[in-house]
Amino acid sequence: MRPSQETPGSIDVVDSLSAVECDLEEELFQATYDESSDSTTLAVVTVIAAATSKDPLELAPLHYTIDGDALDDLFTNSITGTEKRGSTSFEYEGFEVTVFSEGRIEAERIAGA
């Protein structure tokens, strides 16, 4: 069994974010959030803040890496109620971040970053 731990969850920024779980061997952090009530971009920043033990305001602005409006739109269900499916990945703050349509975020530390 791999060592793991929970890091503090939402840091009072994203109400629906679960506690950030960490696989210490793989340096993989993951959490879930409710994309219908919270912003995907805020959830990503919160997960990375927990993974790096930094205040979210200490991180580089996410929009330097990815269009935050497009990221939010990608994972918000349409007004017709159609669920969106899929995932997207990008690098941010030394992590490979993957956001899944079901409200899961994974962040894996990039070796040497």
Description:
A six-stranded antiparallel beta sheet has the order 1-2-3-6-5-4, covered by helices on one side. The chain is globular and about 45 Å long. The N terminus is likely disordered. It is built from two helices and six strands, in the order βββααβββ. The chain starts with a strand and ends with a strand.
Any key phrases for this structure?
113 residues, alpha+beta, six-stranded antiparallel beta sheet, 2 helices, globular, disordered N terminus
Topology overview:
Elements: E1 4-7, E2 20-23, E3 28-32, H1 40-52, H2 68-75, E4 87-92, E5 95-100, E6 104-109
Antiparallel strand pairs: 1-2, 2-3, 3-6, 4-5, 5-6
SSE order, as H and E? Answer: EEEHHEEE
Q: Given the C-alpha coordinates, what overall shape results?
A: globular
Binned, the helix content reads 10-25%
How many strands, which pairing sense, and closed or not: the largest β-sheet? Answer: 6 strands, antiparallel
Our Rg estimate from Cα atoms comes to 13 Å
Q: Return the average pLDDT rounded to an integer.
A: 83
* Strand arrangement, major sheet: 1-2-3-6-5-4
Find the structural class using helix and strand composition.
alpha+beta
The strand count comes to 6
Unreliable stretches, pLDDT < 50, 5 or more residues? 1-11
Percent strand: 25-35%
Distance between the termini: 26 Å
Number of distinct helices: 2
